[in-house]
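User: Sequence in, structure out. Go.
Assistant: Echoing your sequence, followed by the structure tokens.
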Amino acid sequence: MRILIASHSYIVDLNCEKLRQLAQLDPQNQVMVVVPQTWQPGGVQNRTINAPPWQDGNFQRLPVANVSNNNQAMLMFGWPIVNILRQFQPDIIQVEQGAKSLAYAQLITLSRLLRLRAKHCLFTWWNLPYENKFPINWLERYNLAHTDGLIAGNQDGVDILRDHGYQKSALVMPQLGVDETLFKPQPQPELRSQLQINPEQFVVGFVGRFVAEKGILTLLDALAGLRDQDWILLLLGRGELQATIQTRAAELGMSERLRWVESVPHDQVPDYINAMNCLVLPSETTQQVKTLTAVGWKEQFGHVLIEAMACAVPVIGSDSGEIPHVIDEARLIFPEGNSRELGDRLRTLITAPDTAKTLGQQGYHRALTHYTNRALAEKQLLFYQQL
């Protein structure tokens, strides 16, 4: 099977592992990944990324000149994409820029003009209802009308596009898997010591952006009700809410219980997760986040959850978006924004170490069964074969 996938996500080498595994599943598989030649992700990565070509057996990454280098929906590829399609003759064309993507419309149109026999697939994360206006409504209708297979990172994404008229095959799975050779159980006594954390202290961890919708203030309020317990809050990340978090912690008299780590290389993140006794993702649905074509945000997946699970660290999450489906353990879910319920979940893990260990092992087995790059590659290949 000849599979062509286009997405800006794969300019990062680490993100390509699932597709490298996909190429290795069958000697007949050929996987070509088309990425923009230059990209500016913004945020903490305030720089231009130039992805080099990459060949590894039946896997190939090919940078192509692009129009728009920092907007997912506006991304389009230059003229060389025509020759790539003509020469590669893909059986599957998948574009991972959403349902309203110009790049997806571009590759659908070229596929039809070149009379390729490829099945067209899209990937989307978007999980909040929306209404389109002209010309976006026309663009999405065109894309969905020529889509043979939909892959969404969450069930809400499938349901929304069903409401928008899509009726063909669909699969729910994340875009990226977890690297179990990197994220694995590995105690970190020395790191805990460096962070001035005693061996007997219970470390509650958060990894991610410091923004309101990630629910960190709810986490602080929950911990305020647990002052009778010996805990430390380890915050790994950065963001606009940091000063507010510091002020709230001071008001609650908890500043000395916080440990701040602004940023570390990705290959060191597993060390910090393994220094935790549990990881919390207290995300909260909001209408304050706005994009060009939609308003609002709720947790689309929560990749850090499967990273912690792969380390056998128990996770607690709110019921925002896809989190309950990822964790799949009712005792570890709490109503978003409810600090009392979150405090109850934390108290259970702090005071019942055997329960915490059992829940950590359950998460570990779930991560290795469902969320490794190999597991996702097998699932994606089966979907393509069915198409």
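User: And one key feature?
Assistant: The chain has a mean pLDDT of 94.
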